[in-house]
Amino acid sequence: DEVLSEKFRIEEPMEQPKWEIVADSTKKILNYDCQMARTTFKGRQWTAWFTADIPLDNGPWKLCGLPGLILRASDAQQQYIFDCVGMKQTDGTADLLYNLKFDEYTKSTMKEFKEVQKKAVPQDVFAAKGITIEVPEEMKAEFQKAFSKPIPSNSIER
Length: 158
Description:
- By secondary structure, the chain is α+β, with helices and mostly antiparallel strands.
- It contains three helices and eight strands; from the N terminus they run ββββββββααα.
- The strands form two sheets. It has a five-stranded antiparallel sheet with strand order 3-4-5-6-7, with no helix packed on it. Strands 1-2-8 form a three-stranded mixed sheet.
- The mean pLDDT is 85.
- Pfam families: Porph_ging.
């Protein structure tokens, strides 16, 4: 993950959600028959729609462990919504590659990362993007007060 221009690598044990499959709750997504499942995971209540027609136990973010690929997932407040909008059949020769240069990322714990996130203020965000703002002298004190507050975060993990 990234805060301002600093890149972080968070290593943590892989947790798997404990899903409850909802009987008789089905719908079509991208012409696949999907079934609903629910879980509480990382502080949020999730609803997912998965298809057993694609027998992969994967999904977006850290949502996994169902007997089919998750094509749609959302939290109860609809603050996080993941939708599969298309799929493409490959010829079977393509490899899945993760092109991450781990040496460019600072190794961190989730707790340390969240502390850095909390301390990020809007003026730092602008500075990291090379943006400067000119403020009339009579407004500088008010501007500095407003921009010295941390940016509120709606972390996917609570």
